Amino acid sequence: MPSAPVVFDIRTALVFAALMLGVGLFGLMRRRNMLLVLMSLELVFAAAAVAFVAVAHHVRTYNGQIFAVFIIMVAAAQAAIGVGLVVGLYRHRNSISTQHWTGLKG
Length: 106
Known about the structure:
The structure is a single chain. This protein is mainly α. It has a domain at about 35-105: Helix Hairpins. It has three helices and no strands. It has helices at about 10-30, 35-60, 65-95. The longest helix is centred in the last third of the chain and has 31 residues, at about 65-95. The protein is elongated and about 60 Å long. The chain starts with 9 loop residues before the first helix and ends in a 13-residue tail after the last helix. The mean pLDDT is about 90.
């Protein structure tokens, strides 16, 4: 028995992106561990990428996929720089709590 084709629904994709955005923003506001903050920021970027791809698929263009690739590149660079900063903070303070970032002001 053949299965029915999957029909793309933009509302489902946008609701999924909104949920990802909400979880990411909640993590940005509530977390004290810098690694969890970076993971939450990655969720925000992923939500934007999903929304761009969903809208581009709906209007039948490739612009959303192009923007999603740029979002993934920026997220990768942000993760590399962020993890480097977290490692430096851990070596300096032996903690990765966000409360220790205020002591780094010049």
